[in-house]
Structure formats: C-alpha cells, structure tokens
Write a structure and sequence with these properties.
Largest sheet: 4 strands, mixed
Radius of gyration: 19 Å
CATH architecture of the largest domain: Alpha-Beta Complex
Distance between the termini: 48 Å
Strand order of the largest sheet: 4-1-6-5
Amino acid sequence: MDILPLLEELQALARTGINFTPNPYDRERYDRLLALATKYYGLVLDLPGDDVRKQLVGELGYITPKVGAHAALLDGNGQILLVRRTDDGKWCLPCGWVEPNESPEETVVRETREETGLEVHVTRLIGVYTRRANSGHGPHSAIAIGYLCETKGGSFCLSHEIRDIGYFRIEDITDWHEKHLEYARGARAAWKDAVD
C-alpha cells in the first residue's frame, strides 16, 4: 500500500488548520495531526521526524500557485448559475481549491455539490486563468480552471459557505467576487460555441 497520498492529505489538512483556526483546542489537534504525518513521513522516507516537520512547515517541494476550479452551468436562456458567498457577500460561480490527490474536474463536481446541492458532470474545459499576486485579490498568485458542466441531479440546497443560489443574466450582477465576472463571460462564450 502506498501511504504517501494519505500522508500528503493529512499534512495538508493539518497545515491548513494550523494556519486558519482561531481556536486553541483545534490548533492542538492540528499540531497532533501534523506530528503524526511527520512521524510516518519520516518512517517511509527514512528521515528524522524533526527534519520532516521543518521541511513541511517550510513548504515541502517546489512552491507553486494555488489551483482552484469553477463550474459553469447555463440554462436554455444563457443565464448562468451563481452563488452568493457568506464570507464577502459577493456572487461567483461554484468554485473551490483543488485538494491533494484530486483532479480539477473532481473539484468542480465536489464543490458544486457542496455549495449548491446539484450533482453535475463536466462537459468541456472553458479555460485556464491566472490571478497574479498583485491583482488585489490576496497576497498569492493562483490558477483558476473553468469547466462547462451539466446538471445530472440534485436540488438547490444552501451551505455554510453560500447564502443564495440562482440563475442570473451576467449583466444583472454588479457585485462579483474577485475575477468571476471574467470567468462568467468566458463560460457564456464557450456555452454559445457549444450550442451553435
């Protein structure tokens, strides 16, 4: 059994939790999770656990931009499915960060289900977008991958991340999250190409 994919996910969860949690009890749990991951990384890689922890905390491997993926679903009238986020109150396509050992296509399916309640499948790639660190949307660069999708089941259901869901004309939305207006326009163009 290859344990490295499991350790990769465990250390990623631990490091993310340590970075974001304000709760000291959760921080202790994430520290313990990171300690377990580093212990077994050490055993698998034949390295001292302390050395592994230093590498993990200092970013193991080549530092790359974060990768996110978003789903574009359009109805027969060209209206696009959007969600209103709870964190900044702005509208965006269903989206999220690609998790360890997950493909961007899997991310789109998972995030759409989590954020909207809909089950979807990917029909085609729309495009790959770059968000530079100096673009006003955070200190890090990121890559966003957009996919046209079709609904195959489910029904609208709000989540802790989303306070509203619906299909809208792109022109009727004024308060977009980050670069999602650009993503929506690219999605509509790809949808038009697909239906023509």
